[in-house]
Amino acid sequence: MRESFFFKLLTEKATKPLCDFLEITKIFIVYIILSMRGDIIESDKNKVNDENTEYYNETIKDMQDMEILEAQSQAQMILALGYLLEYKASNQAMEIIRQRMAKKNSDKAAGNYENEEEKLEQEEKKWINEGLNADKTALIAAEFELYGQIILTNLDYIKLQRLPKDISRRDLMLTTTANDEIFYGAVFGLIGFMLNYKGVKILYDIGDKTHFKSESMEKIDYKNVYSISSVECNEVLAEIIPERLGQNGKNIKGEIIKKKGAKSKPVKAGDGCKIENNKVIATRDGRPSSKNGILSVNNIYSIKNVDMKSGNINFLGDVQIDGSVGLGMAVKAGNSLIIKNDVDNASIVAGGEINISGNVINSKIYTGQVDIEKKEYLDILNVYKREVEKLIEGVKKINDSSNSKKRICDIARILIESRHKDIPKLSLNIISRCIKLHDEVDNQLIDFLRCKVMGLNISNLKTMRDLEYLLELIEEEIDYYNDDMIIQSDIYVGYLQDSLVKSTGNIFVTGKGEYITNLIALKNIEFLNKDAVARGGVIYAKGNVNLGTVGSIAGVSTRIEVPKDGIVTAEVAYSNTIFMFGKRSKILEEDSRNFKAYMDKDGDIIFEKFKL
């Protein structure tokens, strides 16, 4: 009976002008909400016998599911209508502004500056007669969006209540928060995400081990310094330690200091691993690896030599070459690479650590990776930062002008719609990518974008400080991912000549040294043998450089480059060696021993040395 009553009302209202459409929608919404409460569906469950109870229960459930889905579909149509009206309101507002600017320009050109308010009133009446009433359209749009979202939120709550009682809330990725959260007028106290881990306790030593102590005076065989770590199936690699959320504090004035959300890095099991009871367990024999929170056990591809007979090597996991890499060959390993003899005129690339026991002649050696997903996210953040900086500059100019009486949110909205149209799309892109990378929603930048930038919530921008705070959050996010984007890997090599070596981690020269070779490392460069010689080429590190002997008696030019806070040490340093700290450089003029170079607080390069 109720159904026919509501549709009768809808039919009557539908015959009236379009201005009554909002009233029609309100009646429709009341009908949907009552439908969701189950008043329309009547059950004959009490009339059936026990044998048919299960059948009727399933039938009733199907009917209820149908009602919920129909209501959901109708609510989504209401919501879509609201979005269309909001789009129309934006276009109307832009058309009004264009006409207003054109009118002012024509009046100014004619020298007519009188009766501005009266002219504005006449223009507004004219716009309304032409159907350009942006405020009214925006109000109707907001009401539609609100009604549609209320229905969808209630539907979500109904669906949650209808789930089996024995399903764990953690399995639903829901957990109880300290305070209720409000979403479009509906109150929920059970919103949040699981899998929010603060740290990982490594139970197995993943790195390779050395067989000597740095302070030891015994003779060292640098060709056999390292042993390769390996694990067996079912061995525990790490234990996941769940994070603890902080609490709000107080300053000395008794004011509340809100806790900051932790940016945790979820632990994931890669190939050859599984997670059980907060423990990461190996599922096969192999070599353990940890990259950006992903623990895995890699298979090892082993081969005697790389030459024309074997062809080039391209393997996703670890590669071990028991012999040499021949002339013109190429080796590419997705993870670590071990070469027990020499590399001659070849190309060597690895995502993980490279360990070459022999000599490298006229070759290129590269190691390390860039996290592609994080790099793409970082690129978007940098574009977004530039747009927000331009927006802040524009808002300041308009707000500081004597004629402006508009609110910050109104100025920002106008500028976004006219000059910075990419900001809404970039905001949505940042939210989706950040959630994907973090596996969580506890992020201050996401919260700010949702509450003060997206859609109608831009009206929550109250002051210039809000926009400046948004810029600070973007810069913090950029700094966080700049430090975490590059996967660092080290290179160990015996001797190098006429070669190029690049590492995202450290470079360790374990043998006689290098000759006319360029070494580039994002961390430190160390010559482990005190008798090792660095002669010719460029040695560039973003950390420190520790050498044996640098340069030669004949004055072969060798250049050492480090940042301003870097330190260069050498057992012996010959004249004509160039030391660069940042953009400043200084040439060593006399042969020295026990050499140390650094830049002092005044920006001068200091040499501490004894004459050789």
From TrEMBL:
Residues 208-292 form the Flagellar Assembly Protein A N-terminal region domain. Residues 103-130 form a coiled coil. Pfam families: FapA, FapA_N. It comes from the Bacteria. InterPro entries: FapA, FapA_b_solenoid, FapA_N. Keywords: Coiled coil. This is Flagellar Assembly Protein A N-terminal region domain-containing protein. It comes from Clostridium butyricum.
